[in-house]
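Q: My labmate handed me this sequence with no annotations at all. I'd like to see what the chain might look like in three dimensions before we decide whether it's worth expressing. Could you predict it?
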Amino acid sequence: MNGHRKAMCAKVHNPEPKKHDCAEYPFAASKEGGNPSRGSTRIISAAGNRSAGARLGGFYKSQRVLNGDAYYVHIK
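A: Here is what I predict for the chain of 76 residues:
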């Protein structure tokens, strides 16, 4: 997971690392994460990014998504 995040965000300029995080899609926690040629990054508020990460972790837990399980992301 951290390797995926580093691969996606290595070249992203973050002017205020204490206030902002690099957010990546596909998620670093996913098998598809970590490929800069097939993903997207954006600098967002650290609080927003960490909240989204906590919600994703909660989804994995509540839906019993295990390492290697497939799931679908529906974007509204």
